Amino acid sequence: MSKIAALISGGVDSSVAVYLLKEAGYTPDLFYIQIGPEEETDDFTCTSEEDLEMATAVAHKYGCKLQVVNLHRQYWDLVVKYTMDKVSKGLTPNPDVMCNRLIKFGCFEQEVGKDYDFTATGHYATTEIIDGKTWLATSPDPVKDQTDFLAQLDYMQVSKAMFPIGHMMKNEVRAIAEREHLVTAKRKDSQGICFLGQINYRDYIKKFLGEKPGRVIDIETGKTIGQHKGHWFHTIGQRHGLGFGGGPWYVVKKDVKRNILLVSNGFDTKRQYRSHFGVRDFHAITENPFLLEGIPYPVTLKIRHTPEFNNANVIRQGENLIIDAENPIQGVAPGQFCVIYDKEHHLCYGSGEIELLKVKS
After folding, report:
1. Quick check: is 338 catalytic?
2. CATH number of the 211-265 domain
3. 46, 64, 99, 338: which is the annotated catalytic residue?
4. Is 46 a catalytic residue?
5. Candidates 46, 194, 338, 348; catalytic one
6. Which of 40, 87, 42 is CA-nearest to residue 206?
7. Within 13 Å of residue 149, how many CA atoms lie on the same side as its CB?
């Protein structure tokens, strides 16, 4: 019988994952990873105490050992540093992607997971073995599928991963939790970045980078229409939270050197969309299918966590990839991860960082 480490968060998904492992005949050791804020203050609070209580109750119900693993320092050294570095440069990072790669399947593996055959989590994802090789594959629930958050894992990490609920729909998971009277059955799904709890992301950035006022310019007219408090508070494609009348206004570009935010007026201006962009540092999980230069490879892709996939062709150009999307995509931002799948959006090939091209758009 395989020895399994199960990561439990205190939410319904990881709790049902433990139930399914027990039903399959396993008794996993449970681990709760602490990665919360450095200290709790009036404006920076964390839900970790309640989460741990829930995780403890689930461990007791199923007779599993529970251990708290403090990866706080590693998280702040690796993920927070990555996030602030990208944001300060005007890019759009994804801390959750790096948390999975560097912490949950990284530092945890180095400190604990190495002593186990598999690490199980409550992610909505699956794995598939083809010709003896393990591939990351999507969940049947298009809304909850989380392969985009796992697309920076390496082959060894995916090979050791177990996703007990990955083949299920969210309503099925909820139904099991209620039927089995799990204490987490009624808990709401967590929203936002994995470690922030109730912290507002804007407040979090302000804590580290402060404010740096600059001009907001209408890209069509060249006129200054107001001020922003720091380009790092805004992302390409953003509409809400700009605070200007006569909108809607969309952020379409940042001039980081001059600390200028360029915006466009209207619901469907072409400047909000892009069908041609680059991907740098493409990270292939199992195999890189894009080995030959100049050949269009038909794929599907995502640039953010949505149920929809975009049809596109990938063309290798040197060390980078060029994306030609079938339809223009709204809010393509440098620094975002472009997650690439097969044509059937089943197998996840991997991901890389978006960079904008100066050629046709």
Report:
1. no
2. 2.30.30.280
3. 99
4. no
5. 194
6. 87
7. 22
